[in-house]
Write a structure and sequence with these properties.
alpha/beta; Rossmann fold; Arc Repressor Mutant, subunit A; 16-stranded parallel beta sheet; 5-stranded parallel beta sheet; 20 helices; 18% strand; disordered N terminus
Amino acid sequence: MRSGANPPSRLAPPAKIDAIGLEPDVKAITERLFTDSKELHFIPIVGTGGIGKTTLAQTIYHDPLIVGKFDIRAWVTVSQDYSFGDIFKNLLISMKEFVREETSGLSNHEMAEKVYQTLIGRRYLIVIDDMWSEKTWDEVRNYFPDRGDGSRIILTTRLEDVAARADSSKKFHEMKFLGDDDSWDLLKKEVFKGRSYPPTLEKIGRKIAKSCGGLPLAIVVIAGLLSEVSRTEADWEQIANNINLAITAEEEKYAAILSLSYTNLPHHLRHCFLYMGAFPEDYEIPVSNLVKLWVAEGFVQSTLTKSPEEVAEGFLMDLIKRNLVLVKKRKSNGGIKSCGVHDLLRDLCLVRSLEENFLLYFMGKFVLPEIFEDQLRISVSYSDNLLEIDGSTIQTIICYQRSKIGSLEKFRLLSILDMVKADLPNHVFELLHLKHVALSSPTVIPSSISSLRNLETLIVYPTKPCMVTLPDEIWKMSRLRHLISSSFHPLPRLDGETPPLENLHTLSLVTNFVCSERMVEMIPNVKKLGICYIEGKLDDEYHLENLQRLDKLEKLKMEICSDFSLRPSLNPVFPEALKKLTLSGWHHPWEDLSIVGSLPNLQVLKLRNYACDGSIWKTSEGEFEELEFLLIDECNLEEWLMDSSHFPKLKSLVLQRCPSLAEIPDDFGYIPTLELIEVDGRNKSLVESAKRIQNEQETEYENYSIQVRY
């Protein structure tokens, strides 16, 4: 089970990269990585914000030749809101396949030492993205070993002084602005996505691209704006005129161009975009949390066919299409798991938020009460307390970095409190207008929570590895839509006359969940359910056959977290609506998966921690007919017998920690939809098997659609 909230992610961004105009840069950096020198080399990349430093580093980081050269790679983004501990914590996360011990309780120094020990004896490539401080570099530098094995560290920064600190020879790589042709090529690609375009638009298109001054970020943002207007010369001329007017009116050309993208947003997207400024710089924002916040703020409403969360996800996709929001990670089904914004666009959010009195981002220990006057929303970072301010107008407090807020007694209008990085303030459960609450401290939720009649979302992550206890009164909170924790104690007693929680869509993670008939009646519309078993009772005491009656259930995560011997006696009957299933510690024989394979709508299957036990898995035709993503993480499987017709729609196969599995069946290469095979790089025979499938498909059948990642 997880303990505590997930830290802000500082990991490597996705591998799908547009490197237009970067070919000379890629060549230059790659040559430095492949130099014969065995000494540890530092390779600084310098350039203004938005010029493509991170894109260049990504391109190199994910290059198959680079992947093959280094034993271990890791990525960390530093940013201005730097924390020594967070740097090494996120390096350990990035290297998690090589770190077996639990690291959550380590001190900052111990985490740094753990990074050092993990890197020793391995040729490594580290990317330290967005370094702002010479002092920061001095503090972290000595934790990277130099054992004469050809290891390399790439450092990206906007500051030449920082680059010179890392490489005293001043051989840092300085990025240049794009030329006119590359600017047009990038704009063209972003707008038309490789398809043909009206030749009449080229002249005005080149003019628009040139006006962006060679800054890739400005080009892709303007491309997002052009994508939303008709492809006529008149509309493109209008955009060109607006750019010229904006540049004339503003001292900073690039800021003016980015601002233009905001002023052209439809009204319903403006507040959603400005909200991105509430999160720390370079923060990886979980989409599931973001859409809940937008819903609680009232930015979106449900429709006849869509829930408010589904509408919010549509709004997010609109911002992504406009290149105002970045995709950080994707779900196994291709959806957006996490997102973020470029630093310069975040700055735009903060400036416009102040101008429009939308949100105040406050970072510092010293509180000036007057700056909080008439504010509706505040995002707090590194603050000791807010006791000195008048909170009578504040409706939203967001805190995604470590802070201490002693009391919320003055914040009587507060409706949104999202602070998974702060200690539990006093008076939280007395704020009657609360709709959304996310907290990191309490292990016991008081019965007074029932007074929060408007509460729709409750997220609780205890600060230590322990379970949260809910009161009986939780069943009386009829507006609850999402009830989430790293782990809840068994659900409290049910009052026989209590009406069902018809609005509850998410319930996770509940220990020893008893799926009685009464429970099914109480959560009839639940769509996402997470359950964990830590006691060895018989199956009929848990009534898992009733799971099939949850006919709205689309996502189910079922963990068995103890070593009790009755695991195979847990025989759930899954609902046919299920689209995503995660099983962990199940220890059922592989043949039992035929039950799972018969589910008609299953698209994603994740098998973790010996979900299945045994040396042979033989699949059959007619199973897994809709499955698109299959993950097997930790098992003792030795032989896999299958035919390409057994997984007719599979797109991604991921195999981790399968040391006894020597090869992937060749028939996977003949699945027409297959796009990705990802395997544990330590299993060399499995890597070679995946490469063989890829090579055979390319050389014999000219099928270049399969990507191999390890």
